Amino acid sequence: MLNWDQEISGKKMVVTSSDEAAPAVKCDRATELKAFDETKAGVKGLVDAGITEIPRIFYISISDNHIENSSVSGVAQLSVPVIDLGGLTGDSFRRKEVVDRVREASEKQGFFQIVKHGIPECVMEEMIDGVRRFYEQETEVKKAFYTRDFTKPVVYNTNNDLYSSPSVDWRDTLYCRMAPNPPRPEDLPLVCRDILMEYTKQVSRLGILLFELISEALGLNPNHLYEIDCAEGLNVLCHYYPPCPQPELTMGATKHTDIDFLTVLLQDHIGGLQVLMDNKWIDVSHQPGALVLISNDKFKSVEHRVLASRMGPRVSIGSFFTTGIMPTSKLYGPIKELLSENNPPKYRETTIRDYLACFRSKCLDGTSALDHFKLPKTE
Ligand SMILES: O=C(O)CCC(=O)C(=O)O
Ligand SMILES: [Fe+2]
């Protein structure tokens, strides 16, 4: 294995001569990526090794996220909506009020935070602590989970698109496929096993409630999205963003839209998550809850990103409701009940598998996979 300090941190370069006056210095990127992967220690391993300059594989390109930093955040009237889900049962007036707010936020921003959602504070805190415990245990123990084989129910690695994306994100992730076929408890990391199972139970219940509210907000029967199996699959992604010595050169997570039916995001207090609203990056303060939904452009799938920071580590847990790579042939597309002569379908139908395959092959630069499913406009 290569020694990281000698070979990776910017020193192992291939110098190519050129006709121009200055020789072009080209980094042997493929070698660097492989060596980084083979450490099986992720971004946290670099920080533990005490690096003060980040390797070049993490540099974002000029055309990427940071150019948009000129328009960053803080604009009061563009803050992310916060919806209180308290008092919903048995009060139809209150429920309508909440459904209206969900509709408005999903149409305008494609993103909202939720409070009084029923997941106890202590469960959320323990979940964040459990994830931190996973990353902060001995590298040798973590290595047992390190793989890029996503047929496994539990996968730990860094940057699932490491070899194909233009720049590496400053983040490591533990992926747990919790539904519909949950892993055996002994397959989950011991240090966070119990809380992962408890959090999964709670977030699944919340997901079902959110699908009900979203169905109602779309003018559908409350069980509609549940009945077409939107809540069937659940992937819990536990992210760890170590403190970064040069945060201006890289990203915690490059801008993207999520590719599932709905994401519920739990983040700690560190900050860094931003959503794109009216062409401005808006900070999402520390509160749980984030939403993405495909609905023929009625509801938005918002672009978001995470900045790298000198502070940290930052921990976040994304619960992705999706059937993912499951071999199901079920087709998803614009909801038929919402279509009419005046609202014809804008997208063609697809299986979630094909949608993901398209995303992986074409959209690693942050562009939307949805664009590849657009139907030609009919006049
Ligand atoms: O860590 C975060 O706050 C966001 C994570 C995210 O966007 C994702 O997992 O898709
Ligand atoms: Fe995301």
Automatic annotation (TrEMBL):
Keywords, ordered alphabetically: Dioxygenase, Iron, Metal-binding, Oxidoreductase
Cofactor: Fe cation
Keyword Repeat among UniProt keywords: no
Domain Fe2OG dioxygenase as annotated: residue spans: 230-324
A matching Pfam family: DIOX_N
Family named by the database record: Belongs to the iron/ascorbate-dependent oxidoreductase family.
Protein name in the entry: Oxoglutarate/iron-dependent dioxygenase
Organism for this UniProt entry: Trema orientale
Highest classification ranks of the organism: Eukaryota, Viridiplantae, Streptophyta, Embryophyta, Tracheophyta
